[in-house]
Amino acid sequence: MKKCLSLFAACFFIGLFSAKADVMSTPEVTAIDAVSVVVGLYAKEHNGQLPVSWDQLRNDIDLEKLNQSLVGWAAHPIEDHYAFINQPLSLPDSEGSQVLLIRTVPLERGTVNRQQWRYLIVRRGDGRTVSVKLPEERVQTMLQKAGITITPKAGLPAIESAERLSGG
Question: Torsion over CA of 101, 102, 105 and 109, rounded to 10 degrees?
Fold first, then answer.
């Protein structure tokens, strides 16, 4: 039995009270919001120590059920799409923040004005763990400044279509 909030309870809570009006609710957004809740709870249960791998979260979240709930991800589980960042990486203009997980492949929407972004899980300066959406341009600048290279898992495309992954 999982110690933390059930995945569905966390998703329901986040869906009701999310302040992300600009983020379209998709299976991935719901899943990454649930993971951010579990990451925060993990830190509380481990005296502020943050998880550094998916294995550390397996007692608190059922990754198989989470992956089954994601439309279009049958070949690649969430663990393939998100990497833990185990060195200092902060959000631009967010003093004291620490990026904990980052989507390894940018998402893209649109055919004319193509927009690319990534989702990240961040521990803010106030200690709260949240998920955020950043434009790919800002992500690249942030990674370059920190000297970090993100390598996607084998088999993932360089860019993924947000419409395809959301069932659109």
Answer: 120
Name the phi and psi angles at 131, rounded to 5: -100, 145
Tell me the pLDDT band of 114, cut-offs 50, 70 and 90. Answer: confident
- Position 47 scores a pLDDT of 94
Q: How far is Cα 124 from Cα 97, in angstroms, rounded to an integer?
A: 4
111 Cβ neighbours under 8 A, 6+ residues apart? none
Mean pLDDT (the chain, rounded): 81
Pair 22, 88: CB distance under 8 Å: no
SS3 content of the chain, % helix, strand, coil (to 5): 35, 20, 45
List of residues 6+ apart from 123 with CB closer than 8 A: 39, 40, 43, 50, 97, 98, 100, 129
**Tokens coding 79:** 């663990």
Report, as an integer, the average pLDDT of 91-97: 84
- The per-residue pLDDT for 7 is 46
Specify burial of residue 61 (Cβ count, 10 A radius: 0-12, 13-18, 19+): buried
